[in-house]
Amino acid sequence: MRAKLVVGNWKMNGNLVQNQELLTAIIPGSEGLRDIICAVCVPYPYLPAVQLALKDTHIFWGAQNVSQFDLGAYTGEVAVEMLLDFDCRYVIVGHSERRSLFGEDNHTVAEKFKKAQSAGLIPILCVGETLAQREIGETERVIEEQLDAVIKLTGANSLTQSVIAYEPVWAIGTGRTATPAQAQSVHAFIRSKIAKQNTEVAANVQILYGGSVKAGNASDLFAMPDIDGGLIGGASLNANEFISICSAAQR
């Protein structure tokens, strides 16, 4: 049985005081959640403080991006070894904002996935379509291409030590969300796509939904058979919302 996973993506938000206040509120609320996995992916500068705050709790932590390159002359980049210094468990790769705003293509995302996994990190691979792509019926083609780039580079078995997050781009930060049935349909497609390569991997890989999950819709989304939790954006910056979403995953 796949464990439910809820990951907060803080994006480019927070400061030392706000982060400490948020974690101080989240930690007690997470103590009773034994049947799910909770994590937060935070901006690079705050990894030391988050590591210190969470090291004796049930909450894991990680980063929002990582370089595909080895240590060296890559000014402004952050290598996998640097994330390991702070005991990161997860790292997000291929978030739609990285793809659309910073030009990361499928091959670059696949390289980051491979680099993260080779270092022992668990990559959270984001896939998803824009509204325009959905409206012309290209959702499955787009997601298939995003998955194929990773499978071609690392093999389907590599997905065993990863997490996939379906994030419809049209539902991120817009207040819109896919209905549970719409989300389930895409999650089922992703699992069936992987099953063509390896049925065991498909049965066990966690697939999260990442499109404006809130406390109010989390239970209905997480009740779907192929939705194994959520990649939570704005709601992860509110302790009560985040704990409520985690509680919904446990139920």
Automatic annotation (TrEMBL):
InterPro entries found in the cross-reference section: Aldolase_TIM, TIM_sf, TrioseP_Isoase_bac/euk, Triosephosphate_isomerase, Triosephosphate_isomerase_AS
UniProt keyword terms in alphabetical order: Cytoplasm, Gluconeogenesis, Glycolysis, Isomerase
Record PROSITE patterns: TIM_1, TIM_2
The protein's annotated pathway: Carbohydrate biosynthesis; gluconeogenesis; Carbohydrate degradation; glycolysis; D-glyceraldehyde 3-phosphate from glycerone phosphate: step 1/1; Carbohydrate metabolism; erythritol degradation
UniProt-annotated binding residues for substrate: N9, W10, K11, G173, S212, G233, G234
The protein's enzyme class: isomerase
Molecular function as annotated in GO: triose-phosphate isomerase activity
Catalytic site: H95 (electrophile), E167 (proton acceptor)
Listed GO CC annotations: cytosol
Compartment list: Cytoplasm
Gene3D superfamilies xrefs: Aldolase class I
Any GO BP annotation: glyceraldehyde-3-phosphate biosynthetic process
Presence of the UniProt keyword Isomerase in the record: yes
Record carries keyword Isomerase: yes
This enzyme's EC code(s): 5.3.1.1
Catalyses which reaction(s): D-glyceraldehyde 3-phosphate = dihydroxyacetone phosphate
HAMAP family with a match to the protein in the record: TIM_B (MF_00147_B)
Similarity comment: family membership: Belongs to the triosephosphate isomerase family.
Quaternary structure annotation from Swiss-Prot or TrEMBL: Homodimer.
Purpose of the protein: Involved in the gluconeogenesis. Catalyzes stereospecifically the conversion of dihydroxyacetone phosphate (DHAP) to D-glyceraldehyde-3-phosphate (G3P).
Name of the protein in question: Triosephosphate isomerase
Organism: Nitrosomonas communis
Primary gene name: tpiA
